[in-house]
## 1
Amino acid sequence: MPHAFPFLTPDQKKELSDIALKIVAKGKGILAADESTGSVAKRFQSINAENTEENRRLYRQLLFTADERAGPCIGGVIFFHETLYQKTDAGKTFPEHVKSRGWVVGIKVDKGVVPLAGTNGETTTQGLDGLYERCAQYKKDGCDFAKWRCVLKITSTTPSRLAIMENCNVLARYASICQMHGIVPIVEPEILPDGDHDLKRTQYVTEKVLAAMYKALSDHHVYLEGTLLKPNMVTAGHSCSHKYTHQDIAMATVTALRRTVPPAVPGITFLSGGQSEEEASINLNVMNQCPLHRPWALTFSYGRALQASALKAWGGKPENGKAAQEEFIKRALANSLACQGKYVASGDSTAAGESLFVANHAY
Amino acid sequence: MTHQFPALSSGQKQELQEIALRIVAPGKGILAADESVGSMAKRLKQIGVENTEENRRQYRQILFRADDRINSCIGGVIFFHETLYQHADDGTPFVKMIKDRGIPVGIKVDKGVVPLAGTNGESTTQGLDGLSERCAQYKKDGANFAKWRCVFKISETTPSKLSIEENANVLARYSSICQQHGIVPIVEPEILSDGDHDLRRCQYVTEKVLAALYKAMSDHHVYLEGTLLKPNMATPGHSCPTKYSAEEVAMATVTALRRTVPPAVTGVTFLSGGQSEEEASVHLNAINNCSLVKPWALTFSYGRALQVSALKTWRGHKENESAATEQFIKRAEVNGLACQGKYTGGEDSESDQIYVANHAY
């Protein structure tokens, strides 16, 4: 404990810090296009498209080749392993293509959730075996950041102390390994919105989970300036009877983050969870208008909330490509404004946003 | 872990946060006048004054009689128990003198360090017994904030895991109890500057200690917005052969804080440790000029660094009292500027800023 054994040189630290800042630069966020084959199956099923490798390639190509309007909105793209080795019609690998647009290439590296025996249906996430070698290879293949998702749920008995401790530990291990290879780790401790718990409860659990997260990162000597956090926004459970305003959500979220996330962390890239595209944009927007001081960037790392309309418009048919891209560009632009607090939702005057905030000491 | 049993009502939270904000309002810092009887013995011996209760009273009176010039640079005064119940020559209670000028009164509540058996000379701090009742009484007697000091030292084998966990835990327990009584806890995890370790080492240890502290605060459900942190600056050990600039000290300190102190903490009020008056001001100034984003107030909670000259001028002689008070006011004003990064005196005003890229830390 009393001695430092530095494993990152100043140059390595600078590389990591520069990558992280590039991803969350002003007006930018992340396109999470890392749905596993199983997840894509669900998406394609809803639009009656066949879940083939070629269809997955065609679909991701639509997103990656969206015109220059998308350029300034995206800081990074998270890939699934398969997609990293696919090519555009013109023969360029997807990483090469994405990089040439100035977007940073990221890779999902975890291997899914596994049960924690003796708990009330809780999980941890596997994927540490051989991660060291995989990271070295991914870096060669063009990746500069990675993502690992852990899952926690709220019930009367969860998240348990074990679930919090174990998931935070595995996230810190993953982060430590990534940094050794010049890869910025995005840590994702997702607390699911399933349940009828209220906003206060989610805020409380989020605070406890994130406090444990940053203690684990400290214990594992992770260089915080070279990491990003991908948390849930603080919202009530899906079946909670009380409806909360966007200001309530923003205030609860920012308060929870202010109590736990050290300023050294350059950016917080929210997951959208089950939120609709518009909801995810509005919430992000209001958060960036919150009067509480926020020393980190607050932006998006959206999957469904960037792609739902695009997917629908595409329907698996090549002739719908342009229409699908238009939908994606529309959401990219909206979120680019939202992460600067400048998004004006149609039919809504968010100029009134700031004045609707309730004094924070209530949180 | 899954359910919340709120420790404080909204009203209680608001009260705590407002007190904390008042103490670290722009341009203000804390006068640490809470030296125990034993510490005062050392101070008074150096100026040839007998350590009697009356002498201690007269000395504190010198500080508390400072005129309105200190109202804009002193945001709080920490008292020792004895002093809380003393009066000025005209019978005005010291507490009233301070409060009447709108300055919050604080009280040192710990009962000193005790050894941790089985460690390399490490300690924890006692004082939790009956602390709840004492806090209730102190609140009635005019105190709105408190201070508790824990001590760490850097050596080949220290601070140990036990020392870090135990001291962080006791600081969190103390904080929790204070808040129940509307008292803002200042947590002081002091890492001594004794030793020959370099700046990097001190920064590293500071990061580990503060990370453990804020985890303990979270575990104990402490309301961070209603607390203040009183840390050491990151400095090399006293016998370290390498010399560092004020900018390097500032960068190391701010980097360590950025990696560990959540933005919700209202303010950071540095201890001066063994620094001279000028050194403490110059460092504080450099810290406030550091280019990294600093979401908390960064100010002073100085004892010696506000009082050394005043003590030396007084030397126990009544005729020197006004001059001594002037010395104190001078340091208070300098630090009032330093905590805004506006202090232009001192050696650093002439030298070029030596910018060290933060990723090197």
## 2
Amino acid sequence: MDSFFRSEEMCLVQLFFQTESAHNCINELGHLGLVQFKDLNPGTVAFQRRFVKEVKKCEEMERILRFLENEVVKSNIPIPADFTSETIPVPRDVLDLESRFDKLEQELKEINSNRDTLRQNFTQLMEINHLLKVFDAFLFYLHDRFVAGVIKHERFPAFEKILWRLFHGNFVLRHAEIKPHEEENMADPVKKDVFVVFVQGDQIRGKIRKFHASMYPCPNNAYARKEMRTNVNTRIEDLRLVLKRTEEFRETTLTAAAANLQEWASKVKKMKAIYYTLNLCNIDITQKLIVAEIWCPVSDLNSVHTALIHGSEQSGSSLSPVVNRIQTQQTPPTFNRVNSFTSGFQSIIDAYGVGNYQEINPAPYTMVTFPFLFAVMFGDCGHGLVMTLLALWLILHQEHFRKLKNELIDMLVDGRYIIFLMGLFSIYTGLIYNDCFSKSFNVFGSSWSVRPMFHPHGPWTNDTLHDSGHLHLDPLVSGVYSGNPYPFGVDPIWNIASNKLSFLNSYKMKMSVIMGVAHMLFGVTLSLVNYIFFRNLKDVALQFIPEVIFMLSLFGYLIFLILYKWCVVMKSESAPSILLLFINMMLFDYSSEGTVLYRTQKPVQIFLVVVAVLMVPWLLFAKPLLLYRKHKQLKFLSLPFCLSLFFGVKKAFVSLQVSMADIFVYQGIHTIEYCLGCISNTASYLRLWALSLAHAELSEVLWKMVLQVALRVTSGMGSVLLAVTFAAFAVLTVTILLVMEGLSAFLHALRLHWVEFQNKFYKGSGYKFTPLSFNRMRDMQ
Amino acid sequence: MAALSFVIPMSVMTLFWGIIGGVVPWFIPKGPNRGVIVTMLVLTAVCCYLFWLIAILAQLNPLFGPALKNDTIWYMYYHWP
């Protein structure tokens, strides 16, 4: 249950099994997918390993399989769908499959080459046939010297030109186009011409050869020609038959092969994986025992044990494998058990850095805060609805999309739950920003009304309306502002106001700062949880407490100022700017008038700044000084009690090797990073405001400049124009607002998590648990 | 600030997100995903409530009002309550 909040506890286990049962056991472990084999022969090069020959054999077999698959696909033979075969690959299977594959490859190559030769012959015979057919039309010259042949249609003009140059017109050339026969579609769409050249001299033959035209001997008299024709026709018929038989044979072979293709492929893959794993193990000199070291989650030790027993039973060996858990100082890999919903979020956390062993996993919190921060920047319920529907489509048709095997679509499908949550939260923030394709909903009735501004209540008359273009509503005139804010979100009147941005900017900037400080405080609190888990209570006092006090005294106070100014009624002229208040607080500048929000502001602010400044040396010096004192104490004590203390305080001894200068520098860097980071990170959260402003403005532009133009047309053609314009509006909305802005907000929300949130508590320098898993190998294909 | 029309939305929203974040987690059945679901519920409730609260507090005591065009004012004079 706790497993997703931090990475699982792992143990190092030694396995001993007999050589005969090795394949079966590893096969079982591969199906289980829960153990990672450690490399017990780290010094050996790849081709010095024990089973390198077998691995090479497997790779050769994979090559043959790829060749076979190519041939099958080329002949448009369907490969039957994958079925899970539970046959376990054993060493003798390797030899068997190997010989079968070799035989198949030979056969196929032979068939292919035979077929090609036959086809060539066939083409030649057909050409002779055509030649003979049209020859009669040319024979009123009865010249002795002639050459007949077939040339590609596009080269004929060049051929003619060359002949002119050669013989200065002293030749006769006749040609006719070969009309393609029904069966001459065998990958030969080249158009060919038959030609006859009556000419003196022999150099013509060389030229013809250069043109890649084929020449055929043609007899002079009609009787010989007729005989030749019958001959050729018989040969053509024979060849046709042979070709058909060859093709049939080829297809049968390939179909038989295709039926087993998937099964063989998975078998070979598994065998290669097993041999690769065996290469990592230690083979006992007496060749009877194999020793392997694996990392495995503690909670799964039982299943591993059962799998091994199962494997050894299958191989018929008498001794069951021995499972021996050992203690180790090495850092285990980080393993986070995920399901299909959480895997997307875990992968975006891991993309930045895999967590240290057993440190807090930010993923469960990221599952809500990431889509939420995205939604704050995206903030449009219409676009959010489209995004949610798109994600629903991806979720429901997941299998269909995965079959397309397109990288981009695969990425989208992997993140389908992320997109779904992002869309849902965007609908909510869109409702609060009151922004739906840049229009607002007025569900509860606006809190602002215009009537009280007019006489006799307020300052306006009908003339005021005629005089100026824009008029401000004054909240101080009673009745203009009803006193109760719009109950859910931003009041719809701001959508039609021309100073909408003045209000929205102030609101969104303050909102960003509040969200940012809350997010960062959450991050610092998570570091407390880490310290408590690792029993590092010293760091709680030396790092956590000063960090929290620093942040709260400065930025917590800023939030207090924001909330106070919102909640207290004040006149607009006398309202101090919070930014100026904050700056003056840091500079201890209380000279200008009207700088107080509340009575005791000055002493409170001075106290807070002093406290914050005091936190800096606490952070900077307390921890190194403490370590220095411990170092001195141990040095003092180490002289008489060297040996016993060595075993007792081994950890402290190891840390003493680090020089004191390093510790001071490290702590200095951490302090500066934290304190300056507090300020810069808080400002960095203002991107929540910036992106949501950009999005709102873009969507307003699209509405005003694209759709509204068509909506304003009053003539009858307006409906047609509207249809066309709506198409443009939809395309632009999807490409610019959904795709581009979506990617941009995704990236920025991700950055906020990776940098501003995680640098408060996350170390992220572990290595990922990569178990031997046949399922994963199959999915990665 | 003590006007009724402010108290109603305040209490409704607080109650709503309070139920989602504080009461529903107790009813999630035990299973391997319980921790994750409870975390998600609580975080969603906190984030959404905070976001709504900021929106309503920002409009509680406005320092300036909207600036409207003449035609809009004319329209609102006659058609809005």
